[in-house]
Amino acid sequence: MDHIEQKILSIIDEHAEELKKLASQIYHNPERGFAEHETAKAAADFLRKYGMEPREGLALTGVKADINQSDGPSVALIGELDGIGCPAHPDAAPTGISHACGHEAQMIAIMGAALALNDPEIKAALGGRAVFFGVPAEENLSADIKAELAKEGIVFNGGKSELIRRGEFDDVDISITSHVHMVSNCSSDLLLGNVASTGFVSKSVHMKGKAAHAAAAPHDGVNALNAATLGFNAMAMIRETFQEKDAIRVHGQIRDDGFPCQTIPDHVHVDLMVRAKTLEAINQTSAKVDRAYRGAASAIGADCDIVTTQGYLPVIMRKADQALVEAAEVLKEQRPETTIENITDDMINFASTDAGDLTHIMPVLNFTFGGAEGALHSKDYRITDEYKLHIMPAKMMAITAYRLLKDGAAEAKAILDGFHPTMTKDEYLAYAKALH
Ligand SMILES: [Zn+2]
């Protein structure tokens, strides 16, 4: 490691207690997507304390600060602000939101990196701009919350998607993202590279029938619940047409519309997600699911409205870039017990993330880290190692950004030269808007 890297590591180590305290503050005050006001404020206060001037309230709660306004490439270090609905988790807030997806660790990663990279000597060694970006709402929100958010001007599902729409990624060339391990069998401290994931579309199916007394005159009714139930069964029957290579998942639930038991329900809302590894497979499966529910409605004599909206795009797999590999080696040099793994072609994350949207328009370098156990989003998720969860990722973020931007940003420029986006921003917006 060079002198600058040594300095980055010691600055983060010197502030480890403060970073852990901030991690605990954010972890114990989890907030749902697009409502992360306290988390955003804590991040903005921290950035101000260390001499940066964050912009706040981006897509309601996003926080963005940058350093080093040079002409070179611009690298964004991304942290997600939101918690996940998991009321059974012992550390859930009264709202039912918890940090059972470890997003507080991402926020600490970018805070720690910011305070190190903003050191005058370190900053002077960067041949480009570093952006510290706390983004709202990675976790998909329920249809009723989305409807409320639409009134506040939120058009897209994910915070990153909405920020792309609002032009907040126009000044970013490369993003670095991180997450607690998402591939469940990874036991190393660090997993380098961006694993392919599914993307999805959301569906809201409104089955419309005719109410009647369920015992006295069921023959006068058209049972919307029966139509919905048949829709679920029809969707299950088409599963045999799904190919494993496409990593398709279809799932959903019936909203509680509050009908008494003795009434033939005249309407039922079903919320669905259709996931797959490619846009083509998402679109094909989406059409099959529509057919299943429309066919079910027709069989029962009900009417069926289906609204399909943009979810997240699949993550395009990206093997570990040199900057990530070298940054991990620097961490291992400091702590030889650090274990490192690279992603492999056969890895897949069946869950979806709005970081997928970014991978279609810019290079996204990603690593995941240990320090927690138990299934993500479940009541069993636990923090097991504060260093690995809250300090190591800050070092990885800072040193990866430094490696990209040192020597006149040579590596960042090489990555950009070799990158061919699958969509321009305009094409991305056209795709997403077509589903709204
Ligand atoms: Zn997550």
Describe the structure.
With 436 residues, the chain is of the alpha/beta class. The protein has two domains: 3-197 and 314-434, Aminopeptidase (3-Layer(aba) Sandwich), CATH 3.40.630.10; 200-312, Alpha-Beta Plaits (2-Layer Sandwich), CATH 3.30.70.360. 39% of the residues lie in helices and 22% in strands. The protein has helices spanning 3-14, 16-27, 37-49, 103-117, 120-124, 143-151, 159-165, 224-237, 279-300, 322-334, 355-361, 386-417, 425-434, and strands at 55-58, 62-67, 74-80, 84-85, 97-98, 129-135, 174-180, 190-192, 196-197, 199-208, 212-213, 249-254, 263-264, 267-276, 303-312, 340-342, 348-349, 364-369, 372-373, 382-383. Strands 1-2-6-3-7-18-8-16 form an eight-stranded mixed β-sheet, with helices on both faces. A four-stranded antiparallel β-sheet has the order 12-14-10-15. Helix 4 packs across helix 12 and helix 8 (224-237) crosses helix 9 (279-300). The mean pLDDT is 95. Residues 101, 103, 138, 179 line the site of zinc ion (ZN). Zinc ion binds at residues 101, 103, 138, 179.
